[in-house]
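Exercise 7.
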Amino acid sequence: MPATGLPTLLEQAAFTRLRLKADQLAARARQAGWDQALWEAAFGALGYKHNVWPLRRLAELRESVLRDLPGDRAVAPELQARLFGLSGLLPDQLTRRWATTDAWLRRAWDIWWRWRESAGPAVLPRSLWRFDGLRPANHPQRRLALAAHWLADPDWPARSERWLAKDLADPALRPALLAELQPPEDPFWDRHWTLNSRPMSRPQPLLGEARITDLAMNAILPWLWSRARASGNSALRTRIEHRYRHWPAAADNALLRLARQRLLAGRPLPPSHASDPPAGVAADRARLLRPRERAV
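Solution. The predicted structure, written as tokens, is:
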């Protein structure tokens, strides 16, 4: 392919991808409502490679997970225990090595034993989950801990709309959304990658830059764009398209390296449009052609 045609091709591909995801969200919204469509897309974006479907399935069970909460108020530890039990990822044995983990497991089992009959046949088999080659930060246990914090926040679906309403410079798009969706401190999960890992010496946030990019590209921005289209708000849709186009590049991986090799055949990337800032190119173009740092 001629190098001069690559920028146009990649921008067209990026917006085609945005519209396709928006169409999928709109179709789901017609069945379950806009908020539920967002929950399912967001949970799916937390999945890593082969764990997308189990997490989406847990999002489909959201109303059941939130039912009959003590005091009628959602709290993260209660929801973590329910999600871990439903997912089939709650261990049935203590570690006998880490006191903090064993204390967490005892509390989780106390909650799960009281509620498991309500779950009925909805409990997922552990065999659905894939763990091969996963970095600790991408382990589904850690994703469930994050998802529970989101479920405990009744205002969570509105957070992305608040982010969209803010006037932000392009470099601030990712950190602003990360700050909006970052859960409060979690005494246990801020210092544990999994239920079978050594406690960390330094806390690590449950949500990092790599995952916020997946959320933005695969859930938040397509959902916002789909809603703007449904309401006929062309100005808002243009605003969303700008944020999609100027989102920072994602981390590199083997699939993207192969795509660059096939598209560029070792040639350098041609200069971007004059209106583009140096780092402001289409999100998918950036993913394909401009590898970045690895992020949690």
